[in-house]
Design brief:
single chain; 320 residues; alpha+beta; Phosphoribosyl-aminoimidazole Synthetase, Chain A, domain 2; six-stranded mixed sheet; four-stranded mixed sheet; 10 strands
Length: 320
């Protein structure tokens, strides 16, 4: 007896992605034994065509970005990946070759990050393509990094470079000159898993930067019940972002608030700076000190002379 179309699609494309515990994607759910002595960490993110990726983005990069933004949530908790569940709502009449490319991208990153799919669902939708992924990870009990925990006097650190994703979107949509580096940073974020795990017991609070540096710093400050002071000139920029900013200084607001960075933003005590740098070296991921937490509330962004900068937008919101 021939398989129904949906099950044939799953067998053709998604069964090769199945990880341990997925039961070959032939049952209603997966069976999973967490590693002994580890605590589960779960997170979920969705991506919608025209909102989180461009409709003409290569399908390989869409699958990889979907997995990577979820891996970034694990990185922010200091967790190691275990597996994931995924729901795919493909636009009607999506070519089989497009789905094959989407799956090929997932397979490439599954190999890189040593993770497999555990199950999910596939449907067709009359609206834009929509994908949702729930990721599972593990961490030693009591060692998960949390958003709350920063204290007045703590230093603010960030990994990598900021603004590349937001500028990459501008380059891909013709609002900046084409730039292959910025385009890749928008399409393929880099989850800082090794750094997140190395910061366990060092960082007092952490999260990943997805909605904009200033806005996400505000989340850390509110969770801690304190204020934050950010030095704009200390924010690390890639050569591409620095060149764009030199051409158009108004891009500073986009860099500080555009989002799609997926870098780690974290707090650490001043005396722990050597341990932060040691974690950075161990993870082979650069980090930069960009400010401090203070008594009070809110986020203040300072220019190179120490004067407050007025920003029209602090970051991205789906509902703002």
């Amino acid at each position: 007896m021939a398989l129904p179309a949906e099950f044939a699609l799953i067998a053709r494309h998604f069964r090769p992605l199945a990880g341990e515990g997925a039961l070959d994607l032939s049952d209603d759910a997966a069976l999973l034994d967490p590693p002994p002595g580890r605590q589960l960490v779960l997170a979920a993110d969705a991506m919608v065509a025209g909102v989180h990726f461009l409709p003409d983005d290569p399908p390989e990069t869409i699958g990889r970005k979907l997995l990577r933004v979820n891996l970034s949530d694990l990185a922010a908790m200091g967790a190691a990946p275990l597996g994931y569940l995924m729901t795919c709502a493909f636009a009607k009449a999506t070519p089989d070759a497009w789905i094959a490319g989407f799956v090929a991208g997932l397979a490439e990153d599954q190999r890189e990050f040593a993770i497999g799919v555990l199950g999910g669902d596939t449907v067709a939708t009359p609206g834009p393509a929509t994908f949702s992924l729930t990721i599972l990870g593990t961490v030693a009990p009591g060692q998960a990094l949390r958003r709350r925990g920063a204290r007045p006097g703590d230093e603010i650190w960030v990994s990598g470079t900021i603004g590349d994703g937001a500028l990459g979107l501008l380059a891909l949509t013709g609002r900046l000159p084409p730039d292959a580096f910025l385009a890749e940073r928008y399409r393929l974020p880099r989850p800082r898993l090794a750094l997140g795990q190395a910061l366990a017991g060092v960082a007092r609070a952490a999260m990943d930067v997805s909605d904009g540096l200033v806005q996400d710093l505000g989340h850390l400050a509110r969770a801690a019940g304190c204020a934050a002071e950010l030095c704009a000139d200390a924010v690390p920029l890639s050569p591409s972002a620095r060149a764009a900013l030199a051409t158009d200084p108004a891009l500073r607001e986009r860099i500080l608030g555009g989002g799609d960075d997926y870098e780690l933003l974290f707090a650490a005590a001043p005396e722990d700076a050597p341990r932060v740098l040691a974690a950075s070296a161990a993870a082979q991921t650069p980090v930069t000190r960009i400010g401090r937490f203070l008594d009070g509330e809110g986020v203040t962004v300072l220019d190179g002379t120490g004067q407050p900068l007025a920003l029209g937008s602090a970051g991205w919101s789906h509902f703002g």
